[in-house]
Amino acid sequence: MKTIIETRQLTKVFHEKEVVSNVNMTVNKGEIYGFLGPNGAGKTTVMKMAANLIKPTMGKIRLFGSPLTAESYEILGKIGSIIEQPVFYEKLSARKNLEIHCEYMGYHNKNAIDESLEIVKLMNSGVQPVKEFSLGMKQRLAIARAIVTRPELLILDEPINGLDPVGIQEIRNLLKKLNKEYGITILISSHILAEIEQIADKIGVIIEGKLIEEIEMEKIREKNKDYIEIMTNNTSKATSILEHHLNITNIKVLSPMTIRIYDLSIPQDVISEALLKHGAVIESIYYKSSSLEDYFFTLMNGGGISA
């Protein structure tokens, strides 16, 4: 499989503080790579280095199989990006903003402007100035500007940040379309884990500047197990009933009031009936599927996935 982004021992120091430490990241052709981490973890810094906006202190970056250098003009021409807050000529229309961008980039395919506006559903914005756009429209214009030069790679830093549910759905569908129909590889960061779960093929998790996990979403789904969670005032009693009356042993006590059952061979109603019959007090019992959010917070807490 062709590698689009590869970093090795990538490190960045600001004011004597190491904000990115020895990051080894691999983004393959055709992937949507979800880049996750808390605020200040180093996501934006890594993306800026990959887009050649800032230089690494140490380490190597390869884009499309070639080392990234100050002379990598042809390679950088294959990249579109939105990093931090996009800035536009607010008094001009969407089309005029794209025309100026193409002129600056030395890209002279006028049909690409129409195609980009059509893809992001801004063809009908006419002469409306960008200052009158909603936040969702501005984000779509930012993506139009990023794709107008027909890039092979998109680097998107928090593109759905601040959007309402409708705007988030529009961007989600747009990114899926760009990836599946146009073959664009996408590196995307986001705080909205549920959205990354819906679109990503692979995730990388960075904490305090260190990439602590890089894994395909399919493997997460295989690792994570669905479970039944029980809230009770006496976990010892409830656990004893489950073990001795239902022969359930794949149990984890998470707190003085919370139990998870990973053996799903016995129906939830049978479990509930047995607990009540033998005197356990149940405050709640429900079936839950593990999510990317569960996986992320398990990593944040330094643990593994329950099995």
UniProtKB/TrEMBL annotation:
Family note: Belongs to the ABC transporter superfamily.
Molecular function terms, GO-annotated: ATP binding; ATP hydrolysis activity
Keyword field contains Transport: yes
A Pfam entry, by short name: ABC_tran
Residues in ABC transporter domain copies: 5-233
Organism: Bacillus mesophilum
Listed name of the protein: ABC transporter ATP-binding protein
InterPro entries, alphabetized: AAA+_ATPase (IPR003593), ABC_transporter-like_ATP-bd (IPR003439), ABC_transporter-like_CS (IPR017871), P-loop_NTPase (IPR027417)
Top-level taxon: Bacteria
Keyword Nucleotide-binding carried by entry: yes
PANTHER family named among the record's database cross-references: ABC TRANSPORTER, ATP-BINDING PROTEIN (PTHR43335)
Sorted UniProt keywords: ATP-binding, Nucleotide-binding, Transport
